[in-house]
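Re: that chain you flagged

S.,

Sorry for the slow reply, it's been a week of failed gels. I finally had a moment to sit down with the sequence you sent. For the record, here it is as I used it:
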Amino acid sequence: MYMSDSTQDGNTSEAAAAAAETAYETPEPTIFENAYQMSIDYVEKHNIMQIFQEITEKLVYSKPDDPLQFILMEVQSMIEARQAEMERISEENKDVQVL
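Prediction finished late last night. Pasting the structure tokens below so you have them in one place:
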């Protein structure tokens, strides 16, 4: 740590110390909402527990030789089902707009 000549000599004054403290102030950290609660909210919003539960149930029931491949296929199947549902809803909305 760098020390000025006056500091090394022991001739510091209270004014110099106060000036040094005000010259460099630690910025206040950004305060976020409770991290645990934010995590819980995210998990609930996106149904993460239900997704893992469904995949785990199928995995334990099927007992595949390659569990990772099985999980990958299940996730892909869920994505495709979600996309199909979104397309169905989009088509329904188009039909309603036409009427």
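What I noticed first: The chain has one domain: 15-98.

Talk soon,
D.
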